[in-house]
Automatic annotation (TrEMBL):
InterPro entries: CobW/HypB/UreG_nucleotide-bd, Hyd_mat_HypB, P-loop_NTPase. PANTHER family: COBW_HYPB_UREG NUCLEOTIDE-BINDING DOMAIN-CONTAINING PROTEIN, HYDROGENASE PROTEIN ASSEMBLY PROTEIN, NICKEL CHAPERONE. It holds the Pfam family cobW. It comes from the Bacteria. Residues 4-164 form the CobW/HypB/UreG nucleotide-binding domain. It comes from Ancylomarina subtilis. One of its GO terms (molecular function) is GTPase activity. GO terms for biological process: protein maturation. This is Ni2+-binding GTPase involved in maturation of urease and hydrogenase.
Length: 234
């Protein structure tokens, strides 16, 4: 079974791109499944079911969705193997714009849209910087010049990635993407012992443990303070 991790900021078009790409994968006779990770709610599992795709969803609740992802990815992998999938796609929440728990041996795809702002590629951390493939969406509602400038900014942040433009509505570019997501020579049977591409943000402070009061005397553990001095950042 092949495994792919898809991440990206909210509303960037991840689910639409995945659905169009699955259409192309299924035409090759491959069996595809999706596991959707989110925080409190998602209706994307219904969209996958309507498309005839095997799907599971995991809601992290009050936990960091990416830590929740890592804590469950082995069980997710075993589910995909049990279902006899050729390709399992995991879709993350992508809420903090910083990370998605990319695994070193698993293809990592970041979806980002042209409308997110010209400086957005610089604001996104390892989620964009360490992706193997970067998909740029919503190119049909900006000019050619804007598309090229945005793609250039993405390339500056991650010059090693394959950058593609995919239309989640029409499916333009989805076939080309599908050819990059499945390799018959690749076989994932377990992720036990594999490593993440980067360490994720950590926090163990009083607010993690349910504190709601504001003030330094209520703050304990891993707390970082903003520099409010007049000193200018270099």
């Amino acid at each position: 079974m092949n495994l792919v991790t898809v991440s990206g900021p909210p509303s960037s078009g991840k689910t639409a791109v995945i659905l169009k790409t699955i259409d192309s994968v299924k035409k090759r006779g491959l069996k595809v499944g999706v596991v959707k990770f989110d925080c409190l709610y998602t209706g994307d599992d219904v969209l996958y079911e309507k498309a005839g795709v095997k799907v599971k969803k995991g809601l992290s609740g009050s936990l960091c969705p990416d830590h929740y992802f890592v804590s469950n990815i082995e069980e997710v992998t075993q589910w995909g193997l049990k279902e006899g999938l050729d390709l399992l796609i995991t879709e993350s929440a992508g809420l903090c714009n910083r990370c998605s728990p990319y695994i070193k041996t698993v293809t990592a795809v970041c979806v980002i849209d042209n409308l997110s702002g010209i400086n957005t590629p610089k604001k996104i951390g390892p989620m964009l910087k360490t992706a193997d493939i970067v998909i740029i969406t919503k190119g049909d509602i900006v000019s050619q010049a804007e598309r090229e400038v945005f793609a250039s900014r993405v390339n500056t942040v991650n010059p090693g990635a394959t950058i593609m433009h995919v239309n989640g509505l029409t499916g333009q570019g989805a076939y080309e993407l599908s050819t990059l997501l499945y390799d018959e020579k690749t076989e994932v049977k377990t992720l036990v012992g594999e490593k993440l591409r980067f360490s994720m943000p950590s926090a163990l402070c009083s607010y993690c443990l349910g504190e709601t009061r504001i003030g330094e005397s209520y703050q304990m553990g891993n707390v970082r303070k903003i520099d409010m001095s007049d000193k200018k950042e270099k």
